[in-house]
């Protein structure tokens, strides 16, 4: 972490766009998705504009699967210059829109939209970042971060996937930024806190681009010099395995670290039988203390 | 000696003749590129020997790492020097250690001029250890080390720890001699009776007293060949030792401090910053004065970092992510099956890399049926522990523990 202050030569940004149709802002007005997408594309292009070596990937997260919207596997689209716009920007915009249409069209009509599986998309992004780092020229200083733009809520069902993904990101020094469009996301906020990224719940959707550009565009090295939204307080209580309730004091199996809210003689996760003599060894110690 | 006879492992120079060059074969075009890639894949596979069997984690491990700071560390057979190489590898070791062993503690000891000096206290704070290590680079390396003094010191530090915790000492020893004040054999016996497991990594050559120390206390002894071997020896010792797995199982009462005093927001009078208090862990140093902190849910003592053991009521304090670090052992990702590449897919699902002729094998997930390159396969199985394909499918993403 010591070389955080030095600006990097190349910065890779992976944007994960939640396109799940059951997000509240889409069900209320489906056109808002287009506005949000335009904001994200404009944001992506401004990232590319900052440095010639900056790289970009965009992953669309739909309810039935996640897919890369940019870059395309294989050959890139054939793009000609329009109105003097830099070709790369046109390519980014066209590719994302075309691939997103394909993604939405491929959704199975009989399936009901469930929750957005963002953990899987982050896992894909981490593999992409790992590949980018492997193939990069040696000596190039690379920073990588992931930005999640979502309006869904998070549930405990993906907890394990989320945690694995967060710890991998922390290990690979990848920041995870989260831009929430609707609800407060406590799990993703934990991820931001673990990886050192920023969490922001956007107060109004109209200003989305402005929030993206002001808060999420600066690189890691520049962020220390800016006044950005604070971390806030993160709730780190553990949920017990038996009732999924948040605890302040619980019992932890010393073998597999499962959390329980009550003492039970057998661990339900790893089937270890506990010695009931737990409190006994403490008693003689206390007596000694008194003497 | 009887010990030596029991040790059946033969030395390298006693083994048969290895014809390493015969493994290399050219393909039709006279190229070895494909073969090299295959070797790399095989080596990567070998490195990932999955830990099978029941999950036994080294919770509550307490490891002291003793670093030789004697003249012998100046030697440049490891680049740039033994000492600098050791420091660099130790940083990696410390990160990996806390990754593998949630809720464990580590302390650093310097073997300096016939003395053992404490560099950092036993603690679970990664940053503190790394910072202390980084401050060592310019240290002058003189004199001889003393193994016995180090052992005595480790005994003193590790003795008062609770019995359910595993207690270990890891010595990085470059010198071929040790300058001891008394009989080291009695010290080794004392450590043995205390149940402190001592491991040694030698940087020069095998030393008998180190070997005896490791054999008696149940530790492991290794001598490095080069920096790569050194690294793998160090990282091997991050995984919990078998002895720690044999410890008695028990339910440990644990507190999860949640730092949000939500009452403040409703009460306008105390809406300001929390009152300035001193945290319990820095009470002796006179530091650690501040507002933020984690409060013990039982006695409301304040701690500035987690995990910690409450000094007032003895409750172990941790936060949920500390425990979650180990969940990938509980819910492991299913290994991918290796299939010969016959154009099943154009590109790797996870990283979009196009498959080329060099990819003789690709990997397929048995659940989501996506294809992955071997690099992504190793990332998924070693660090990520989530299959990117399964995790983004609505009917596959939940990996519940098998009901068996």
Query: What count of domains describes the coordinates of chain B?
Result: 3
What is the radius of gyration of chain B computed over CA atoms, rounded to a whole number of angstroms? 25 Å
Give the biggest beta sheet of chain A.
6 strands, mixed
H-E string of chain A: EHHEEHHEHEHEHHEEEEH
* Percentage of β-strand residues of chain B: 15-25%
Give structural notes:
The complex is a heterodimer of chains A (291) and B (404). Chain A contains 9 helices and 10 strands. By secondary structure, chain A is of the alpha/beta class. In chain A, the strands form 3 sheets. Chain A has a 6-stranded mixed β-sheet, with helices on both faces. In chain A, strands 7-8 form a two-stranded antiparallel sheet. In chain A, strand 2 (55-61) and strand 3 (66-70) form a beta hairpin. Chain B is of the alpha/beta class and 404 residues long. Chain B folds into 3 domains: 61-238, 3-Layer(aba) Sandwich (Rossmann fold), CATH 3.40.50.410; 277-330, no CATH class; 331-397, Zinc/RING finger domain, C3HC4 (zinc finger) (Herpes Virus-1). In chain B, the strands form 5 sheets. Chain B has a 6-stranded mixed β-sheet with strand order 3-2-1-4-5-6, sandwiched between helices. In chain B, helix 3 (82-100) runs antiparallel to helix 4 (126-134). The longest helix of chain B has 19 residues, at 82-100. In chain B, 38% of the residues are buried. Residues 1-5 and 261-271 of chain B have low confidence and may be disordered. Classes of the chains: A alpha/beta (291), B alpha/beta (404). At the A-B interface, helix 4, helix 5, strand 7, strand 9 and strand 10 of A face strand 7, helix 11, helix 12, helix 13 and helix 14 of B. Strand 9 (249-253) of chain A pairs antiparallel with strand 7 (251-255) of chain B, so a sheet runs across the interface.
Briefly say what this structure is.
Chain B: One of its GO terms (cellular component) is transcription factor TFIIH core complex. Chain A has 291 residues and is of the alpha/beta class.
């Amino acid at each position: 972490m010591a070389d955080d202050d030095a600006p990097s030569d190349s910065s890779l940004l992976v944007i994960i766009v939640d396109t799940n149709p059951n997000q509240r802002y889409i069900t209320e007005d489906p056109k808002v998705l287009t506005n949000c997408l335009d904001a994200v594309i404009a944001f992506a292009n401004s990232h590319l504009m900052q440095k010639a070596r900056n790289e970009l990937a965009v992953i669309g997260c739909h309810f039935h699967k996640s897919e890369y919207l940019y870059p395309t596997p294989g050959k890139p689209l054939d793009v000609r210059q329009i109105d003097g716009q830099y070709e790369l920007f046109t390519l980014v915009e066209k590719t994302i829109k075309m691939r997103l249409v394909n993604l939405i069209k491929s959704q199975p009509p009989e399936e009901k939209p469930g929750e957005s599986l963002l953990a899987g998309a982050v896992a894909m992004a981490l593999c992409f970042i790992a590949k980018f780092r492997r193939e990069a020229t040696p000596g190039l200083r690379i920073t990588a971060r992931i930005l999640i733009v979502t309006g869904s809520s998070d549930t405990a069902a993906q907890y394990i996937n989320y945690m694995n993904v967060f710890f991998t990101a922390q290990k690979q020094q990848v920041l995870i930024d989260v831009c929430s469009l609707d609800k407060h996301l406590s799990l993703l906020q934990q991820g931001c806190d673990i990886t050192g990224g920023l969490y922001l719940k956007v107060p109004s959707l109209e200003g989305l681009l402005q929030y993206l550009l002001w808060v999420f565009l600066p690189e890691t090295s520049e962020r220390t010099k800016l006044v950005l939204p604070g971390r806030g307080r993160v709730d780190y209580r553990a949920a017990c395995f038996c009732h999924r309730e948040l605890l302040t004091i619980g019992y932890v199996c010393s073998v597999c670290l499962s959390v329980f809210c009550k003492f039970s003689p057998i661990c339900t996760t790893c089937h270890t039988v506990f010695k009931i003599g737990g409190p006994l060894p403490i008693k003689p110690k206390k007596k000694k203390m008194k003497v | 000696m009887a010990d030596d006879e029991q040790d059946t492992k033969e030395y390298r120079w006693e083994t048969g003749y290895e014809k390493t060059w015969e493994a290399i074969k050219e393909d039709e075009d006279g190229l070895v590129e494909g073969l090299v890639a295959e070797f790399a894949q095989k080596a990567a596979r070998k490195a990932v020997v999955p830990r099978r069997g029941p999950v036994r984690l080294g919770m509550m491990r307490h490891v002291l790492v003793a670093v030789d700071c004697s003249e012998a560390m100046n030697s440049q057979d490891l680049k740039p020097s033994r000492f600098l190489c050791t420091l660099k590898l130790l940083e990696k070791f410390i990160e990996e250690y806390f990754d593998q062993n949630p809720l464990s503690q580590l302390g650093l000891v310097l073997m300096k001029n016939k003395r053992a000096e404490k560099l950092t206290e036993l603690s679970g704070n990664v940053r503190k250890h790394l910072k202390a290590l980084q401050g060592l680079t310019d240290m002058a390396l003189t004199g001889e080390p003393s193994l016995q003094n180090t052992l005595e010191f480790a005994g003193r530090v590790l003795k008062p720890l609770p019995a359910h915790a595993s207690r270990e000492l890891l010595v990085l020893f470059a010198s071929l001699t040790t300058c001891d004040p008394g009989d080291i054999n009695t010290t080794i016996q004392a450590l043995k009776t205390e149940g402190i497991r001592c491991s040694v990594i030698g940087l020069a050559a095998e030393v008998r007293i180190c070997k005896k120390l490791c054999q008696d206390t149940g530790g492991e002894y290794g001598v490095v060949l080069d920096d790569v071997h050194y690294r793998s020896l160090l990282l091997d010792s991050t995984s919990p030792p078998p002895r720690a797995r044999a410890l008695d199982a028990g339910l440990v009462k644990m507190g999860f401090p949640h730092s949000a005093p939500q009452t403040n927001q409703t009460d306008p009078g105390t809406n300001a910053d929390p009152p300035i208090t001193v945290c319990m862990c820095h009470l002796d140093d006179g530091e650690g004065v501040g507002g933020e902190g984690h409060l013990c849910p039982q006695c409301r003592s304040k701690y500035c970092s987690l995990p910690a053991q409450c000094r007032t009521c003895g409750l172990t304090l941790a936060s949920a992510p500390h425990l979650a670090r180990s969940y990938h052992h509980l819910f492991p990702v299913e290994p991918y099956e290796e299939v010969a590449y016959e154009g099943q897919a154009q590109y790797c699902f996870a990283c979009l890399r196009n498959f080329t002729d060099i990819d003789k094998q690709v990997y397929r997930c048995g659940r989501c049926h996506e294809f992955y390159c071997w690099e992504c396969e190793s990332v998924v199985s070693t660090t990520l522990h989530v299959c990117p394909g399964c995790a983004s499918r609505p009917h596959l993403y939940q990996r519940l523990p098998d009901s068996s």
